[in-house]
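<backbone_tokenisation>
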Amino acid sequence: QVQLVESGGGLVHTGGSLRLSCAVFGHIADFDSIHWYRQAPGMQRELVATLTQRGTTDSQPSVKGRFTISRDNAKNTVYLQMNNLKPADTAVYYCNVKGPYLNPYDYWGRGTQVTVSS
């Protein structure tokens, strides 16, 4: 049984920073990619940042230069460092891990709320 548990959300002012954590409980073999998604009220869930098995990263244009995805293998934890936060970043943030083509899986956490006040 694999569980992803997000933490680190909260209320910050515009321009502030938060670091989200995603603790991975259970064994995940040969993951393909790890992602952070977010969903604002009344909006569809959107991809925020990606970290591949090879270590490459990518993020959506609206957060480039402000958000950084990283991983601590020793702690089985994935992070999303968010700087210069804006009210448009307000959403529930979810951690997601996807398996490779030959062993597909798709695990999600329950999310953590991030609220940025103007």
